[in-house]
Design goal:
Elements (H helix, E strand, L loop, with lengths): L10 E5 L4 H11 L5 E8 L6 H15 L3 E5 L9 H14 L5 E3 L4 H13 L4 H4 L5 E4 L2 E4 L7 H10 L16 H16 L3 H29 L7 H11 L7 E4 L2 E6 L2 E6 L8 E3 L4 E4 L4 E9 L3 E2 L5 E4 L6 E2 L8 E2 H8 L3 H4 L4 E4 L2 E5 L3 E2 L10 E8 L2
Parallel strand pairs: 1-2, 1-4, 2-3, 4-6
Antiparallel strand pairs: 5-6, 7-8, 8-9, 10-14, 11-12, 12-20, 13-20, 14-17, 15-16, 17-18, 18-19
Helix pairs in contact: 1-6, 4-7, 4-8
């Protein structure tokens, strides 16, 4: 057995439970003279044998000449399942380690079980991605060098090297979800799909690549909008909310709000209130900071608004307005036109509408009313609504 991944750091703390996986990992890494190893054992206090496990880890680390830190934690369920609460306490203990990298002994079987459980719980693509080989963990890196190695191979390595390990008696408790999957569901799947673990792990890698691509796209999008780069944790939480499918999904970041509508992400900047109707005096640009952009006007032949319809005024939607962008189709409400054009609901109330007197002339994203369109060959005024 060998790790196929280069260590992300020379200073590594191995999470040592005493089980065969973590014992084998510690033994494997101890053979690399370039690494500065230490071990962390988390004493959960959940088993009557917990003190014996700690003593085993001390003895093992003494034999391998590896420093060991033992951290006692209190597992607070607070509405969580026991597995989840224990994992949370364990990771909080890992955060206190004075090393840049924490090595964990998750293996191929763990990965397949995790993906299967996530899918059964209705998780999306992030849950289907399973556990990454490397992940940011505050100011540290979580490293899982055995993630592609089957448990059977790890046990064979431990026997060849005459390693001792301990068995957690809770592994036989099938009321715990993972144990039920491991002891009942897994063997049934193996009868029909002998390679189900490898298949799920491979699917997880595909989903993980997709998630990584989504993260990069979101980073690029935020940068293009002049927003600060979020932390890794916040970026993941932003993605989780934005792909949730909820019509009310929104994420606040750096003074702006990201929302989704019909599968697209929109940036909704914080704007000042109190916009008042304005007259357009013929200038090529009319800045409207209250609405987050500016109107630009250019002349074009056979396009735009017929010039005889000046002057124009800028107002917001008040309700009940109708527009006929296509002279071959009937006049329709803005609500219907907005829905057809896919303009998000929150944008509709802050679009600058052009009026001639009390008549609606132009709406951004919808066009010019047929009554005000410049005839072919005549000069027209083409408005544009631009936002940074």
């Amino acid at each position: 057995m060998a790790s196929s991944r280069k260590p992300p750091s020379a200073e590594i703390a191995v999470g040592l439970s005493g089980g065969v996986d973590s014992v084998a990992l510690l033994h494997l890494l101890s053979g690399n003279p370039e690494l500065h190893l230490q071990a962390i054992h988390v004493h959960h206090g959940l088993s009557p044998n917990a003190d014996d496990w700690t003593a085993f880890c001390r003895k093992l680390c003494k034999r391998l000449d590896i420093p060991l830190t033992v951290r006692k934690v209190s597992v607070r369920r607070a509405g969580k399942g026991l597995e989840s609460a224990a994992r949370e306490a364990r990771y909080e203990a890992f955060k206190k380690a004075k090393v840049p990298c924490i090595a964990l002994a998750h293996n191929l079987d763990d990965q397949a079980e995790t993906v299967l459980m996530n899918l059964l719980r209705g998780a999306g693509s992030r849950g289907a991605s399973g556990m990454p080989v490397r992940a940011r963990f505050g100011d540290k890196t979580l490293w899982r060098p055995l993630l592609g190695t089957p448990r059977s191979e790890i046990e064979a390595y431990a026997r060849r090297n005459q390693l001792d390990w301990i068995e957690d008696e809770s592994n036989a408790d099938e009321s715990l979800t993972r144990n039920f999957v491991r002891r009942r569901v897994g063997p049934l799947l193996e009868q029909k799909f002998p390679k189900w673990k490898e298949s799920l792990a491979r699917a997880a890698r595909h989903f993980s690549k997709r998630e990584a691509g989504a993260e990069e796209l979101l980073r690029h999008y935020l940068h293009s909008k002049g927003l600060k780069a979020p932390s890794e944790a916040k970026l993941l939480e932003m993605l989780k909310q934005l792909v949730s499918g909820s019509p009310r999904a929104q994420v606040v970041h750096d003074g702006a709000t990201l929302r989704t509508y019909r599968g697209k992400v929109f940036l909704d900047a914080e704007l000042s209130s109190g916009f008042s109707p304005q007259e357009w005096s013929g200038e090529p640009r009319l800045k409207l900071p209250e609405l987050g952009g500016e109107l630009r006007f250019r002349k074009a032949r056979g396009k735009g608004i017929a010039l005889e319809h000046k002057p124009l005024s800028v107002r917001l939607r008040s309700g009940g307005e109708r527009l006929q962008p296509d002279p071959k189709r009937p006049r329709r409400t803005l609500k219907n036109l907005f829905q057809e054009a896919g303009i998000p609901p929150w944008e509709r109330e802050r679009l600058p509408l052009l009026f001639s007197g009390e008549d609606l002339v132009w709406v951004p994203g919808l066009g010019i009313d047929a009554r005000f369109q410049a005839p072919p060959g005549a000069q027209g005024l083409v408005p544009e609504w631009l936002k940074p």
